[in-house]
Amino acid sequence: MSVHHDPDCLFCKIVEGAIPSTKVYEDELCYAFRDIAPQAPTHILVVPKEHIPSCAQVTDDNAALVGHIFTVIAKIAADEGLTNGYRVISNVGPDAGQTVPHLHFHILGGKRMPDQMV
Ligand code: AMP
User: Fold this and answer.
1) DSSP string spanning 17-28?
2) Is 43 a catalytic residue?
3) What pLDDT, in 10s, does the model give residues 18-66?
């Protein structure tokens, strides 16, 4: 499998283990780890191992990968005991406040989320 990798990307470095993280889940396609600055009791990031900058670069070629990530999100949420619900967020670009340009989905749970956003 040829996986595109960006040597300057923080999350590529986390995926390859060059920067430490608290792993929650891993398979051949994706990696999940705890957010370093959690905004909820459970705050996990799920990323493709392949370097995709954001949702804006999701295409027919990688749609199956993104679909797979959503099955992983459901599994992680169940494993984390988020039976009362959770929020899944992916920021895209400056207006959304995306700080790491490697596609990632936040899983936030364990408390009642603010009614705004969204
Ligand atoms: P975003 O602002 O949507 O791009 O989200 C990036 C997230 O990555 C933020 O919630 C950060 O707290 C998180 N983050 C940044 N560096 C690390 C790291 N080394 N380990 C875990 N999470 C990180």
Assistant:
1) TSS---EEEE-S
2) no
3) 999 999 999 999 999 999 999 999 999 999 999 999 999 999 999 999 9
